[in-house]
Design goal:
heterodimer; A: alpha+beta; Immunoglobulin-like; Cytochrome Bc1 Complex, Chain D, domain 2; 3 domains; 6-stranded mixed β-sheet; 4-stranded antiparallel β-sheet; 5 helices; B: mainly alpha; two-stranded antiparallel sheet; 32 helices; 41% helix; flat
Chain lengths: 248, 681
């Protein structure tokens, strides 16, 4: 009896130590980086920053970064490595720049809503690391619902860009609304005021009646979802937009 | 060795005092391990961490008050939930921790359900009763559920919510794709409500394929359908050259001719080279068909097949017959019978036949087929289950050609064969199967689709929702899908509506497409004269729309017949069409309506009444709304647009009767008079 409990307990202790060891050393294995054939001086973003995607989903567009030398000319053959908070994956996680000095990677964001700070780094001639920080936004359920509602009811007026499916009405409006990404304006409006203008229309904040009242069309939780979405995509970021996930 | 053991024994248990001492020591240690184990448990470690974290926060007092130590549990006997996740995830309900970015202390994001009512594992899966991270999250035992990766989380919504749901685009999209790509033609998917998932693709019958196209085109298509049309829903079966040669031989040999398809070409195409393009534009073919433009972008809808390379595919005689009346070749087609006249048919034929791609058939050189090749082709057609999707003379549609997927989301991983290097989880397996079916064996029949990573995630999400829990939930806990009705209009007008394929775009009484407005209440909404004229010569109401109502070249009799039917049958019981007059409103009321239109409600943001000043073009142009709509409809619409057309973007302003009446008076006075030049801008 004693021997039995002894063995299970030692086993437990061993397992505990091991699992601790494993959880500490837990890192996703990725292929070892290739050897660079050239070195740049700076790394810049070509495209793919400031995108939004649902939590855990891959970004709609790949992330493309470029390595340049001191003169700003592209450097082929330089090593670029991507890193971010746990949960973010890059495919590939590293690579040498192509003939136009660029590396392209597909990014999948982590499972928590918020801003994800990604780092792309290269090594310069002095073998020092040069970093580029890029931010992407992961939308949770509420923000995703908000995005859907915005697409259905708001974007035609608030988004100056047209798509094939939706011509923008922005240019036709006498008084121009703000795109929801415009943090400089929208961050100054409190949640209560946003709720008021969305529910009761422009006049609720002494603004134009061209902004209709949505309080009888959308539910309270719909309006909260819209606000949550507006806060999430705001640039510069909103104070209440939640945490930033960066590499620790 | 034996000696050593003996002396050790002597040392420890040599006399009774020693033995007693040693045994009690062992006892003591082993007794101490139990509380120590408890003391060192993970959840206690996290609870300590949590308390340390909140200590210096400004909301520490509140958080401290909410905190409860020890093992926590959500117990929901109805759902079979015993979730102890909250023992470590201590801050789940603390909205004020929104700034915290370390787990397990993040608050739960806002969702429409309460944690106390649903627990955790209903959505996230995993082992709720476990009290260690490893056991709760990554169960090691084959029959247990590991945590569902975040990217598939919407599948859990789909267990109870059987229809489209706001806020879960991935689940909705996945379900749509299962039907749209015809997955459910080979894989049966029985839904928990006892219905079967229906395909929404439209694979053509191959009974008369030799009328339509050549063996060379079939060869090129089978080798790579996406090389012909990037939007094709037909997958790539990765067939060898020989197999493709033989299948094409069989299909041509097996085809029976239809008399109309071989009629010689009649009228000559007009000399004006732009005539085809403008007829194509006027007929709004692009509402359903896409064509690649010079920049390589697809322009047009996806209801019908892409036409970028149509000239390399179809025989001219067949195309002519199809344009005359597509229903002769395929009675079920979504394409309307346009009633084109001969010169129009000739114009179209010339225009479409010019859309060729010389690369497509450049390397296809086929010799006359031998009987052995044809026989082999027939065998292949059976083997690959082509008849699951296509009608093929002499070949029966196979039953359950591929494994049923009705419970795929609960498939035990012991029954799955994983590839080397693959994570041993069901979601990874499902996603890999969709991505590259033949990774799992060259001899497998499942074809290769060209889905994007996002589409694969969506499909996996939809499939994972098909699990044991979904299948066995009591109906009281589920939210049923709205089933598509099988409404069919009756009589002569009904026949005409089928011929014109109205239901491809319009929805009536719960049946039909969603490209164009729902017509269920159309008879209450519009004025008779306007409707007759519109059916004969549709001008556009919404200039901002890409897709528009085409002109079907209806005769007066046809237009009148249709109008009569719509006016009498499609009536909203709550609206008396004749309860409000179409003119004669007091000038004061019209004036008030105008003020409300431009002031209080600022309708000009979206609608145009005065083409000189108004610019909004989200909603229909209202310059002649007084000749188009009934006053009773306008009044009810002002009061509550969503009640008449659910989902419309027009905001509900909860107007008083007085405001609604004034706006009705103003709008009904807009009798227009050919201001369509604005509409066309």
């Amino acid at each position: 009896m004693i021997r039995h409990s002894l063995t299970t307990n030692t086993l437990f202790a061993v397992v505990l130590v091991m699992s601790l060891a494993i959880s500490c050393s837990h890192r996703t294995a990725s292929a070892p980086p290739p050897k660079p054939t050239a070195f740049g001086a700076a790394i810049v973003e070509s495209s793919g920053g400031k995108q939004t995607a649902q939590t855990g989903a891959s970004l709609p567009q790949p992330l493309v970064v470029q390595v340049n030398d001191e003169q700003g000319t592209a450097v082929p053959g330089a090593l670029v490595e991507f890193s971010a908070a746990p949960g973010v994956t890059f495919d590939p996680a590293n690579g040498l720049t192509d003939s136009s000095g660029q590396v392209t990677t597909n990014v999948t964001l982590g499972g928590m809503a918020g801003r994800y700070q990604l780092t792309a780094s290269t090594i310069d001639k002095a073998r020092k690391k040069v970093d580029l920080r890029i931010e992407e936004i992961a939308l949770g359920y509420q923000q995703t619902l908000g995005r859907q509602l915005s697409d259905q009811y708001c974007d035609r007026c608030h988004n100056p860009e047209s798509t094939v499916e939706r011509l923008s009405n922005f240019d036709n409006l006498e008084i121009k609304p703000h795109p929801f990404t415009e943090g400089d304006t929208l961050n100054k409006i409190s949640d209560a005021d946003l709720t008021a203008i969305i529910s009761h229309g422009g006049p609720a904040l002494n603004k134009s009646a061209l902004m209709p009242a949505w309080g009888n069309t959308l539910s309270k939780s719909d309006i909260q979802a819209l606000i949550s979405y507006i806060r999430a995509i705001s640039d510069p970021p909103n104070r209440n937009a939640g945490p930033v996930y960066a590499e620790n | 060795m034996k000696e050593k053991l003996k002396s050790l024994w002597q040392k420890l248990f040599g006399d009774s005092v020693r033995a007693f001492g040693v045994v009690s020591l062992v006892f003591l240690v082993s007794l101490a391990i139990a509380p120590a184990k408890n003391y060192f448990s993970e959840w206690r470690h996290y609870q300590h961490g949590y308390l340390k974290m909140i200590r210096n926060r400004s909301d520490a007092v509140t958080l401290q008050r909410h905190f409860q130590g020890g093992i926590q549990q959500i117990w929901l006997p109805d759902l079979g939930v015993v979730d102890r996740c909250t023992s470590c995830h201590v801050g789940l309900k603390e909205a004020s921790l929104a700034d915290v970015n370390v787990q397990p202390f993040r608050p739960h994001p806002v969702i429409p359900h309460k944690l106390d009512q649903f627990g955790c594992t209903v959505c996230h899966r995993g082992q709720g009763a476990a009290t260690t991270v490893a056991e709760a999250h990554n169960s090691t035992l084959a029959w247990e559920q590991p945590i569902l990766p975040a990217k598939y989380i919407e599948s859990s919504c789909g267990e109870c919510h059987r229809g489209p749901l706001p806020g879960v685009p991935q689940l909705n999209q996945g379900r749509h794709l299962l039907s749209r790509y015809g997955c459910v033609r080979c894989h049966t998917v029985k839904l928990p409500d006892a219905t079967t998932m229906k395909p929404t693709d439209d694979p053509p019958s191959l009974e008369h394929i030799a009328d339509k196209t050549t063996r060379e085109w079939i060869y090129a298509w089978l080798k790579d359908p996406q090389a012909y049309a990037s939007t094709a829903t037909m997958p790539n079966f990765k067939l060898s050259d020989d197999d493709v040669r033989d299948i094409s031989a069989f299909l041509i040999a097996n085809s029976t001719p239809l008399p109309g398809d071989t009629a010689t070409l009649t009228a000559k195409a007009p000399t004006d080279p732009t005539a085809g393009a403008s007829l194509y534009g006027e007929s709004f073919c692009a509402s359903c068909h896409a064509v690649q433009n010079a920049a390589g972008n697809l322009v047009g809808g996806d209801l019908g097949p892409e036409l970028t390379r149509i000239g390399s595919k179809v025989r001219p005689e067949w195309l002519q017959a199809w344009l005359r009346n597509p229903r002769d070749y395929d009675p079920e087609t979504a394409m309307p019978h346009y009633r084109f006249n001969d010169p129009q048919v000739a114009t179209f034929t010339g225009f479409l036949l010019a859309k060729t791609d010389s690369d497509l058939l450049a390397n296809v050189h086929l010799e006359a087929a031998t009987p052995e090749q044809i026989a082999h082709g027939k065998r292949l057609v059976s083997d690959y289950g082509c008849a699951s999707c296509h009608e093929i003379g002499g070949i029966k549609k196979p039953e359950n050609f591929a494994p049923e997927l009705s419970r795929i989301g609960s498939k035990p991983i012991t029954q799955l064969v994983f590839l080397p290097g693959m994570q041993h989880t069901l979601p990874d397996y499902v996603a890999a199967k969709i991505k590259q079916p033949r990774w799992f064996g060259q001899a497998l029949k499942m074809p290769q689709y060209s889905f994007t990573p996002a589409q694969i995630d969506s499909l996996a999400t939809a499939l994972l929702a098909l699990n044991d829990r979904a299948a066995t939930l009591p109906p009281s806990l589920t939210v049923a899908a709205k089933l598509e009705s099988d409404y069919q209009p009756a009589g002569k007008a009904g026949k005409l509506m089928t011929d014109l394929a109205c239901f491809s775009c319009h929805r009536i009484n719960g049946h039909g497409g969603d490209m164009a407005p729902d017509l269920t209440w159309e008879g209450s909404s519009v004025q008779r004269e306007w409707l007759v004229e519109f059916l004969k010569n549709p001008n556009t109401l919404r200039p901002a729309l890409v897709r528009r109502m085409p002109r079907f070249n209806l005769t007066d009799t046809e237009a009148n017949e249709l109008t009569d039917y719509i006016m009498t049958v499609y009536q909203n019981p709550a609206i008396d069409r004749d309860s409000m007059p179409l003119s004669g409103y007091p000038q004061g009321q019209v004036e008030l309506g105008k003020q409300l239109f431009y002031g209080k409600y600022a309708c000009q943001g979206c609608h145009i009444v005065d083409t000189k000043t108004d610019k909004g073009y989200i909603g229909p142009t209202l310059t002649n709304v007084g000749s188009r709509l009934t006053a009773a409809w306008i009044f009810e619409w002002m009061k509550n647009p969503q009640a008449l057309r659910p989902g419309t973007a027009e905001p509900n302003r909860a107007m008083s009767d007085e405001d609604a009446r004034a706006l009705t008076a103003f709008l009904i006075s807009q009798k227009g008079g050919g201001k369509s030049e604005v509409a066309k801008k």
